[in-house]
């Protein structure tokens, strides 16, 4: 446990940030699973749009590395194309 006030504050901010990042990654994983489980091509396309928006937002906020975000979006595109 830190003794210095700024270190205590930094620790608390890190905890808040970590929980927010975990929540974001969880939402992305759920969105990707929903794309995979879509029953029709139209449904998969709609869900892909939502998932891509979440991935882009996470990359902008640096929760995900931009290259990983690009890879995820490419994988989502392949998933949707495979459902045609």
Total number of strands: 0
CATH class: Mainly Alpha
Radius of gyration: 17 Å
Low-confidence stretches: none
SSE string, helices as H and strands as E: HHH
Question: Per CATH, which architecture?
Answer: Up-down Bundle
Helix content: over 70%
Q: Return the CATH topology.
A: Methane Monooxygenase Hydroxylase, Chain G, domain 1
* Beta-strand content bin: under 5%
CATH superfamily assignment? Ribosomal protein S20
In total, the number of domains comes to: 1
User: Could you say which overall geometry the principal axes of the C-alpha atoms support?
Assistant: elongated
Distance between the termini: 55 Å
Mean pLDDT: 96
Quaternary organization? single chain
Main sheet properties:
none
Structural class determined from secondary elements: mainly alpha
Total number of helices:
3
Report on the structure:
The chain is mostly helical and 84 residues long. The chain has a single domain (5-82), classed as Methane Monooxygenase Hydroxylase, Chain G, domain 1, CATH 1.20.58.110. Helices cover 82% and strands 0% of the residues. It contains three helices and no strands. It has helices spanning 5-36, 41-60, 66-82. The radius of gyration is 17 Å and the shape is elongated.
Describe the secondary-structure layout.
Layout: H1 5-36, H2 41-60, H3 66-82
Comma- or semicolon-separated keywords:
single chain; elongated; 82% helix; 84 residues; mainly alpha; Methane Monooxygenase Hydroxylase, Chain G, domain 1
